[in-house]
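Hello, quick one for you while I still have it in my head. A protein chain has come my way and I'm curious about its shape. I'm sending you its amino acid sequence along with the backbone structure tokens. I'd be grateful if you could look everything over and explain what you see. Here's the protein in full, and shout if anything looks odd to you:
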Amino acid sequence: MIKAAVIGSTGYAGQEIVKLLLRHPGAELIWYGSKSYKGEKYSEIYANMNGLTDAYCSGDQLAEVADQADVIFTATPQGYCASLMNEDILTKTRIIDLSADFRIKDVAVYEKWYGIEHKSPQFIPEAVYGLCELARDNIKKARLVANPGCYTTCSILTLYPLAAEGLIDTGSIIIDAKSGTSGAGRSAKTANLFCEVNENIKAYGVGTHRHTPEIEEQLGYACGHDVTLTFTPHLVPMNRGILATTYSQLVPGVTGAEVRAAYDKYYGEEYFIRLLPDGTFPETRWVEGSNFTDIGFRVDERTGLIVAIGAIDNLVKGAAGQAVQNMNIMFGLPETEGIDQVPMFP
């Protein structure tokens, strides 16, 4: 039985990890870490946990938790994990970090886009970018996994086969993505109040969103050269879900059959990636509450563009579900264990 701890357990992503671990047959949740709610009963913070756990929130002391847990999930703000990471911790336990602290290999790029100094850049080279379907061999032996962001998971998985097989002009990529409000976290913000969000859709972080370099870096690894793209996120009035609509110029002569073959090559055997039939496109409602990624595409022969669309639940495949999927890989468990829920509808 894996002894697991969650630091940041009272945020949306942390609560989702708790929910998954409480029903995971191979893991025991031993630490509910929360700086804000230390000493409070977890089920009084999240009443959906009534009768499921009697645990109280402990603090967020990473070094103390490392002596007790086999794996620690850090669902914490940017900078927290990096500020406390050291060799002693990594010799005692394994870390799955849901922040951006170890996702980007160039520390200067991280510091530019996130506006903070990285406190432990010496661990960046060994951190594995935990996009499970693309990095599972490296994840198996990792001490430190950088769990990808929600927009990035959806965008990268949608575009990766096209970039890796050289089917698109990677200088032409435009990503138009929509997210539910839970992606902004649980802290009180005026912009996320019901009256601000309801009956509205807005773009934000235009040209400046912090997931941009993460997407560029991973797609650059896919195609073997630097990638610069346009990424524009939008906030929509729903709780969960991300829909990423991507536009790319196809290399002249590439056919729809070749595109389908590329997706089948990379994802044809993947349980958590569902390639949709021709003419069918993803909707967030069909992945809600699940760890699935749905992908569909259409080749626009009139313009020479390919429109590839992906959908995920931002709190599951975009955060907690992928984090537990990473844990399963790291500890040699079946990859689907504890996270094979059917999407919930309606």
